[in-house]
Amino acid sequence: MFNKYLENQKKEIEYLKIIAKRLESMNKELKEENDRWKGKRQ
Q1: How many helices (H) and strands (E) does the chain have?
Q2: In the chain, how many domains are there?
Q3: 40 vs 18, 21, 34, 35, 36, CA distance in Å?
Q4: pLDDT on residue 13
Q5: What is the signed CA dihedral for 22, 10, 12, 26, rounded to 10 degrees?
Q6: Apex 35 CA angle, 33 and 36, nearest 5
């Protein structure tokens, strides 16, 4: 039973890592977009 729990935890961690990577790349894109807008306004 404990093994099952650990397996589930591992899967959850992998899932969270994937989400974190996606958020990181979205954040990067938003920052680049923001920088472009700042450049246009000046």
Answers
A1: 1, 0
A2: 1
A3: 33, 29, 10, 9, 6
A4: 98
A5: -10
A6: 65
How many CA atoms within 13 Å lie on the side-chain side of 9?
6
Give the residue numbers spanning the domain of 29. 1-42
Mean pLDDT per 10-residue segment, the chain (42 residues): 95 98 98 94 78
Tell me how far apart the alpha carbons of residues 25 and 16 are, in angstroms, rounded to a whole number: 14
User: What is the residue whose two structure tokens read 């650990």?
Assistant: 6
Question: What's the CA gap between 8 and 10, in Å, rounded?
Answer: 5
